[in-house]
Amino acid sequence: MKMRLTSSIAVAWIAGTFSAAAADCPIERAVYSEAEASIELRFQASGENTPLSHRFSLVGAAGKMTVDGHVLYDPEIERPVAMALHNCPEGDVTGADIVACTVWKGIVYAADKASGEVGLLPEEGTDAPDSLILPGFGPAIASSSFGAAMTAMPWDVFTFKQCSPKA
To answer: How many CA atoms lie within 13 A of 99 on its CB side?
Structure first.
């Protein structure tokens, strides 16, 4: 399901503030950059026999932030839902444990510069999109324990930066 960009994100995006397309880079090797707070979103392959559709890490400037995350497809809402988690306990955990270590949770949208369309995060093995939109990401990170160490509040848009080498 795709929709046209209509927000201020579209204005900045169409104005050319984003870098070149992610040609021939599968999403599981894509690295994205958020310009305001210098955060990178680095995808990794999710692995076999897992309910996860994607894995990623968020890495802040000068190593001030490293957060692991994953994406699960939620069949109830028919959307990929991402969670950025920090210092979660391992083993048997409760819902309250997960809530306490969740830095951000939301739907990940993919944006295409050429067409101006927004869709859902593509499956692994598919070319990486030009940009990702993580609604509410900036305020969530700014209000987290990482916010105090940041010199700028992050925005919700990440632009394709590079393709990481094959593992």
So the answer is: 3
Lookup: tokens for 139: 């305020």
Q: Decide if 141 is inside a domain.
A: yes
132 domain residue, yes or no: yes
Residue 129 DSSP one-character state: P
Q: Is residue 139 part of a domain?
A: yes
Expressed as residue numbers, the domain containing 104 is: 3-15+28-161
Pairing of strands 117-120, 3-4: antiparallel
Residue 167 in domain: no
Residue 61 and residue 39 in contact, taking contact as beta carbons nearer than 8 Å: yes
Residue 150: which residues within 8 A CB-CB, separation 6 or more?
Answer: 37, 60, 64, 65, 141, 142
Global pTM value: 0.79
Where residue 21 falls among pLDDT bands split at 50, 70, 90? very low
